[in-house]
Amino acid sequence: MSHPRFLSVLLLLVLPLGVASAEENVKHLDEFFRGKITKLKRGVVTLHYDFSDEKQGEDWYESLPFPIKRLDDQGMAVENGKLEIHGNTGASHVALFKGGIEVKSRVKLGAKEDIGGMITPQSDSHDFATFTIVERYFHRWDNQRGPGQHTVMKYGDQWREKGFGDSFVGFRYVARQPPKEPVIEGRTVDLAYGLKRGKLWMEIEGQKLSGKDMGVKLKVMRAGFYTVKGKIRVDDVTIEGKLDPAWLADIGVSPTLSAPIEDD
After folding, report:
1. d(CA 236, CA 52)
2. Partners of 135 in the β-ladder
3. What is the C-alpha to C-alpha distance for residues 90 and 224, in angstroms, rounded to an integer?
């Protein structure tokens, strides 16, 4: 029969090894993300993507929150130092943020309409938002065929209308304005968007739009970009917000860094 004192010593030797092993299996933020972390303060992280390394594309995946017919050659990929998205599709970031988000980017326009940013919920439901340069696709659903407008829109099944098929997603206009500057294919523009204190907002070349987060509120969300029958090349993307603790726990990532942030 083993002596109780011997068992106590054995437990003291074994337990720390188990704890250390568990800690070794947990990744830090800078070990998980392929983008560069430029700031981490009080749980708010700032991620930057210049797409100089194709591996940065691993933090993004192809998705679109509303149903639309696929085009034969559509897709997303990191090419020549930019995230290229073309066809009827989008690119979503892998991270989930809680409470709000801010996205800044440089976008080369491969079309003159129906291109922009999006925020999609954790549930992948229809309660998402878009921030569109010259929105026409959903305006046509709404029988509005005039000049396109920069538009912030919120979607939800509660706004579905009778008589439409499954391809229709209900929506409301949050804010819209005619472009103050010409939208020229091939030009590169500054596009920013996000959710802050219950307001959805976008800014393109200094032109600002904002309005209330209607319907089912966005609480846990991911950032993305999309296009309808067009193409965009995205660069210098900065995403800032508080990472969702539940998401981090689920994927086994610690809200910490393995090394201090290096100044440029």
Report:
1. 10
2. 149
3. 7
